[in-house]
Amino acid sequence: MRVPLAFLLGKLNFEKEFRNVKAAPEGSDQRITAEPKNDNLPYSSVEFVVGPDRHIKMVKVIGFDRSTVEFHFDQEKVDPPLDDKLFKFQVPPGATLVEAAQ
């Protein structure tokens, strides 16, 4: 689960983390496949499908046990406007807020 999230957050360095990186056209998209350089990781390969607009459409991680975790994305919005109310914490009724000592 960490690989897709790390990639989406821009935390993976392909040259440092992967070997056998290959890209192949898939219609107007590009399918990128790679294997980890470190054999101690719980996956054997990763795949990404990236659109011509450089938006990620799919991330797939294949485990050594042949398990597959696959995520599909559409309608990506970069920096969408969000209401400030989404980021305000209110103590639920009956709960007590405990401040951490600093």
Tell me what the structure shows:
This protein has a five-stranded antiparallel sheet. It is extended and about 55 Å long. Helix content is 11%, strand content 37%. 4% of the residues are buried. It is mainly beta and 102 residues long.
Keywords:
5 strands; mainly beta; 102 residues; five-stranded antiparallel β-sheet; extended; 37% strand
Write the layout of secondary structure elements.
Elements: H1 2-8, H2 14-17, E1 18-26, E2 29-36, E3 43-50, E4 56-63, E5 68-72
Antiparallel strand pairs: 1-2, 2-3, 3-4, 4-5
Task: Write a brief caption for the model.
This protein is mostly beta strands. The chain has one domain (2-75).
Number of helices: 2
- N-C termini distance: 33 Å
Cα radius of gyration in angstroms: 19 Å
Largest sheet: 5 strands, antiparallel
What is the overall pLDDT average?
A: 86
Strand order of the largest sheet: 1-2-3-4-5
Question: Based on helices, strands and strand pairing, what is the structural class?
Answer: mainly beta
Order of helices and strands: HHEEEEE
What is the molecular shape? extended
Strand content: 35-45%
Number of strands: 5
Instruction: Please bin the fraction of helical residues.
Output: 10-25%
What is the domain tally?
1
Uncertain segments? none
